[in-house]
Amino acid sequence: MHSAFARTHVALNATVVQHMPVLSRMNVHDGGFTKRSFNGRGTGVYIRAIPIMRLTAMRGNAGKVSTRVRLPAVAGLFYPDDPAELRDSVSAYLAQAPTVAGPAPKALIVPHAGYVYSGVIAAAAYAQVAHQRRQIRRIVLIGPSHRVYLRGMAVPASGVFQTPLGMVPIDGELKQRALTHEQVVESDTPHASEHSLEVQLPFLQTLFDDFTLLPIALGSASPPAVAAVLADVWGGAETLVLVSSDLSHYLPYEEAREVDAETIAAILRSEPSLTGEQACGCIGINGLSFLARQRDARIAEIARCNSGDTAGDRSRVVGYGAFALHEPGTGTTF
C-alpha cells in the first residue's frame, strides 16, 4: 500500500499559515476513513473526512450570524457515537473520579486520547470543576493542531461544534478578543479533523448545564504569544480554561514513566520549555505555564498514568496527566 503526502491550503495571511504536507496518509477502505501516521513512525488513528454543515441561521454571542457547524470527526473512534452510550460512558468515568470540594481551579490540563485509554485521567481532571456546573458559563479550550501546520493559532469560522450529545455554540465575544492578536487567524481547516479539542466536548456537555466555547487550535507559537491570548480571554469565575495534551508517545512502559515523571516535574515548576517529545500539547502547556508565572499561580498534579495501565500493551505506550491551576488567594495549598 502506497502512502502519499497531502497538502492542506488555508487561504489566510501567508505569514501565519502556510502550505505543508499533512502527515503521511493512506486510504485503507471505503466509507471516508483515512489512516494517518504520526511522527513518521507508522502508527496512527482512523479519521473521517468531515464536511462543514451549513445551517439557515445561528447567532453567536457577538450578534453575528454564523451558518456553519463543525461536525464530529472522531465519534465512534475515540468515543461512542451513540448518544446514550456516550453519556453513560462519560458519566461512568466521572463517577469513578474522587469527589472534590473546595475552590475550583481556573485552568486544567487534560489528555485527549480515546476514552478507553485516557478517560479515567480526563475524568479526574473534570471532577475538580463538577461542583461548578452552574457557575461556569464559558470554556476556553486550546490544543495542538495534529494534522494542519500553523504558524500561530486558529479559531474556527464555524459558529457551532456538534457532538452526538448536541450543539455547542462558539463564543463570539471571546473569539473577537482572540482575533485582535496578530498570530490568531480564523479558519475551519485546522479544526475540521482535530481530535484534541473534540474529545473534551462530551465531558463538558455532561458536566455543565449551559456554556459557550472558544476552541483554539495551536501551531507554532511562543509561550508569551499563547499566554497573551489566554490573558485576554481569561475572564472570571464564569470562565474555565482547558489545555489539551498527552505526554510522551510510543516509549516502552518503564521508560515512559521516567520521561513523564521529568515532564510532570517541569509542569509543576511552571517551566515554559517543554518539547513535543515530552508532550504533544507542549505549545499550550508552555503558554499556560508562562501565564502562571506572570499571575503568581501554581500548577498542581491531579493524576497520571499511561496506556499500559489502561488498555494498551506496554511495549509502546502513551503517557497521560491531569493538572489544575489555582490562582493565588483561592485558599488552595500545594
Describe this structure in words.
- The chain has 334 residues and is an alpha/beta fold.
- The chain contains 9 helices and 17 strands.
- The protein has helices at 83-96, 115-126, 172-179, 195-198, 201-207, 223-232, 253-268, 282-294, 307-310; strands at 4-8, 20-27, 33-38, 43-48, 52-59, 65-70, 107-110, 138-144, 153-155, 160-163, 166-169, 184-186, 212-218, 239-244, 249-251, 298-306, 317-326.
- The strands form 3 sheets. Strands 7, 8, 9, 12, 13, 14, 15, 16 and 17 form a 9-stranded mixed beta sheet that branches.
- The termini are far apart.
- The model is unreliable at 1-52 and 54-63 (pLDDT under 50).
Summarize the structure.
The chain is built from 9 helices and 17 strands. It is globular and about 45 Å long.
- What portion of the residues fall into strands of 2 or more residues? 25-35%
Distance between the termini: 52 Å
Radius of gyration: 19 Å
Averaged pLDDT:
84
Order of helices and strands: EEEEEEHEHEEEEHEHHEHEEHHEHE
Poorly predicted tracts of residues: 1-52, 54-63
Overall structural class, as computed from helix and strand content, comes to alpha/beta
User: How many helices in DSSP terms?
Assistant: 9
Oligomer: single chain
Shape verdict: globular
Largest sheet: 9 strands, mixed
